[in-house]
Design a protein that fits this description.
By secondary structure, the protein is an alpha/beta fold. It has 10 helices and 13 strands.
């Protein structure tokens, strides 16, 4: 059933990030009046500026996709920044929305919010039921606070429907490919491309490569958000978004190498951190909600590689 809600104005934070750019590039974007300010137009780390912008733009709903993101190396190198920046971004936009009287919000969380030793697949009820993964703890804490703040606001006044969508790991166009900042798949594409250009026949994999991850193509995540705009009433207040399948790090490397025609070998550095052994979100609620992704892993990696090649030209 399609929700009867019609949002005349949608305020999107993080329009310059990977998720935001995929939202703005999605075919359904033209069906909505989306306002997506740059950081020069509004500093979301400053509360008064954020509140002023929300009051002036008068959105019917806010999609909070802004965030400082990065892979294991970036999180380990700058834990303070990952905690404080994401904490400020979430707190400011959520509290500004409440103060400005915006009744609806889609807050984007992260599968990093789940405890490191929780049984997979990870159901929404497991959040705060155990110790977090140390390699991205700061980022996870900030995302948990934002989700809890949304929940608290709704518990105090049910007219404020602030809901949190928790996507699995994402990749795709507009991603960061530099190894120091990137997540797994874009990092693999960059490393293999560099090896091909420099005729290097060995590529290092952190750990034994057996850790398992779930990745969804970013255009599918954007599609889920547009589905949420049309099915907001039916959307649970805490909802995982994923593909329902994971792969080992070794499999991501071998699949990407095949797509890129790389014939070198991979060596494992067992002294490097690998993060959680498995991170696969439960999609039971997503299925009941009625949405599913469209892009296979091979299609997604090929499209991401094509995007990468265009950026390198």
């Amino acid at each position: 059933m399609v929700s009867s809600n019609k949002f005349n104005t949608v305020l999107l934070t993080g329009g310059s990030g990977m998720v935001g750019k995929n939202i703005l590039a999605h075919p359904k974007c033209s069906e909505w009046n989306i306002i997506s300010p740059s950081s020069k137009e509004v500093d979301l780390t400053h509360y008064e500026s954020t509140l002023d912008f929300v009051k002036k733009s008068k959105p019917d709903i806010i999609i909070h996709a802004a965030g400082k993101v990065g892979g294991i190396n970036a999180n380990l190198s700058h834990p303070v920044d990952f905690l404080v920046t994401n904490l400020d971004l979430g707190r400011n936009i959520i509290l500004a929305a409440r103060q400005a009287g915006v009744k609806k919000m889609i807050n984007l969380g992260s599968s990093c919010m789940y405890p490191r030793n929780s049984p997979n697949p990870l159901s929404e009820e497991l959040i705060l039921q155990g110790e977090l993964e140390p390699t991205n703890e700061g980022y996870a804490l900030a995302k948990i606070v934002a989700a809890r703040l949304c929940s608290y606001i709704n518990s105090e006044d049910s007219k404020f429907e602030y809901k949190t969508m928790i996507p699995c790991n994402l990749y795709g166009p507009y991603d960061k490919f530099e190894t120091a900042q990137s997540h797994l798949i874009p990092a693999i594409i960059h490393k293999i491309s560099h090896a091909i250009k420099n005729q290097v026949n060995e590529i290092e994999i952190w750990g034994d490569g057996n850790a398992r991850r779930e990745f969804m193509y970013a255009d599918d995540a954007a599609d889920a958000i547009f589905y949420a705009l049309s099915h907001f009433k039916e959307m649970p207040f805490l909802l995982n978004i994923g593909v329902g399948m994971d792969y080992s790090v070794n499999e991501f490397y071998s699949t990407t190498a095949e797509i890129m025609n790389y014939e070198g070998k991979f060596i494992h550095n067992l002294e490097k951190p690998v993060g959680m052994k498995q991170k696969l979100v439960s999609i039971e609620k997503q299925i009941l909600w009625g949405w599913k992704p469209k892009t296979s892993l091979i299609q997604g990696i090929q499209s991401t590689y094509n995007y990468y090649l265009k950026q390198e030209q």
